Amino acid sequence: MRIDIVTIFPEFFDVLDISLLGKARQTGLIDLGVHNLRDATTDRHRTVDDTPYGGGAGMVMKPEPWGQTLDSILDEKKNADAGPLVIFPSPAGEVFTQAMARELVDEEHLVFGCGRYEGIDQRVFDHTAIRARVRLVSLGDYVLNGGEVAVMAMIEAIGRLIPGVVGNPHSLVEESHEDGLLEAPSYTKPSTWRGLDVPPILLSGNHGAIAAWRREQQLERTRRVRPDLLDRAANEGESPSARP
Ligand SMILES: N#Cc1c(-c2ccc3cc[nH]c3c2)n[nH]c1N
């Protein structure tokens, strides 16, 4: 997978040199390009923002540096459907979910555009949508100062699903949200710790009973902590376990 990131804080993504994603880059599973939006400016101060038309607090990101930077990433010869998917993190976007991560891991090329200030001039989204598929995506219902944190989270959630990135692919299946439920509690040695025992079923060796116990734990935890996930599954006509 090719990933391009447009940002005014390129050093923010230095962390993608380490851990599993860093290894994925070394082995060629992920090809990453980070583009400093200020490199597309022409003034001495490398200005990327200006005051908003219509007034209002804060500053808006100018369209010109975005247009020039995206020109260097998007292949004009490809039609919009054949080219990369351009994702702009935005509090006004569709909420990012594990299902979306699973959908996006099949993309050959993702471009992430990190806004700052009060956001990006709307014409950047409109013009980009002429030449590429565009999605505004939100990390959740809270306010961040820019798109970089959201892009980091999305890249990790998507990148770890690329075959070969995570050592044991089976571990991807038994995680929260993979089957529409929260994961069951986990335990390891010692069997007693500070007077707290591991549930005896987990020491029984009865794998069928262990699987049933874990399933019940998932359902109980999801009912208690995230009943909305059960509602979502019901509305989508799926049993929580029905993950494609
Ligand atoms: N994704 C996401 C976001 C943001 C966000 C994204 C981009 C910019 C650019 C300026 N401020 C931003 C906030 N806030 N909350 C979320 N869940």
Automatic annotation (TrEMBL):
UniProt-annotated stretches for the region Disordered: 224-244
A GO molecular-function annotation: tRNA (guanine(37)-N1)-methyltransferase activity
Domain tRNA methyltransferase TRMD/TRM10-type: 1-231
Subcellular location: Cytoplasm
InterPro entries: Alpha/beta_knot_MTases, tRNA_m1G_MeTrfase_C_sf, tRNA_m1G_MeTrfase_TrmD, tRNA_m1G_MTases_N, tRNA_MeTrfase_TRMD/TRM10
Catalytic activity: guanosine(37) in tRNA + S-adenosyl-L-methionine = N(1)-methylguanosine(37) in tRNA + S-adenosyl-L-homocysteine + H(+)
One Gene Ontology cellular component: cytosol
Keyword Chaperone: no
UniProt entry keywords in alphabetical sequence: Cytoplasm, Methyltransferase, S-adenosyl-L-methionine, Transferase, tRNA processing
Compositionally biased intervals (Basic and acidic residues): 224-235
Enzyme class: transferase
Record's keyword annotation contains Cytoplasm: yes
Pfam families: tRNA_m1G_MT (PF01746)
Enzyme Commission (EC) number: 2.1.1.228
Signal peptide annotation: none
Residues binding S-adenosyl-L-methionine: 115, 139-144
A Gene Ontology biological process term: tRNA N1-guanine methylation
Assembly: Homodimer.
Family: Belongs to the RNA methyltransferase TrmD family.
Role played: Specifically methylates guanosine-37 in various tRNAs.
Protein name: tRNA (guanine-N(1)-)-methyltransferase
Native species: Mycetocola manganoxydans
Gene name as annotated: trmD
